[in-house]
Amino acid sequence: MRAKYLASLLLILVINGCAPIWEDESGWDPEQRVELYTRLGLEYMAQNRLASALEAMNDALAVAPDDSTANHAMALLKMRLGETSDAKTHFDQALVSDPGNVGARNDYGSYLCEQGKWTGGAKQFETARDDPFNTEPYVSQYGLGVCLIGAGEFRAAQEQFRAALVAKPKSTPVLYQSAQASFKLEEYFSARAFLERMFGAGGVTADSLLLAVRTERKLGADDLAKEYAARLRSAYPGSEQVEQLNVLMSGGDNG
After folding, report:
1. Which CATH class is domain 169-255?
2. CATH, domain range 90-168
3. Dihedral, CA atoms, 51, 88, 62, 28, nearest 10 degrees?
């Protein structure tokens, strides 16, 4: 009942703006106010209304500065705003307040890996993956695999993706990254197989088509490479991937 009421109030607030209309209501406790402000801030983020999101997140943290969920949400907002130092501060607080906040730990891992801090990022993903209360460990396995690719540990990354595919065999992001790892390991038939599975699941992207061109060229299947190149040019004209393709096909890129 409380969840439905909060959802209804959240909708009203998003429509009318972030006005603290419950201050005249009796019975609102700090936990409810923090939850509502945080959810409101996340909704504004989804709408790309970042100034409103920041106001709502600040209101949440004014009520409960140590709240794990509110700090996690603020960290995500700070990343969107490019304020990476502040993002780290809020990630740290989110995990100090609740070490079992798996979502925050996964996002912190992504943040660290994006900063090139591979060891720290991998550690966050490993901790999240091994948490016995993590109901979606494949998310952590996937994130860890992406981080390991960035670190150049392609075999270890491949192992994480394979584990994630046990739970989500049709996940197109995992299939794509699996193909990436196989390509880096020069296992081109494996890369082709993952890409074909990805395409069969409806996951066609500019990056996957470019990787398919590279893979088929490595396998000597020039006609198939040309087919993928034509699909890339047709579906994503003017894209960065098409520019890379033109360099590749002109012989300026041996990859």
Report:
1. mainly alpha
2. 1.25.40.10
3. 90
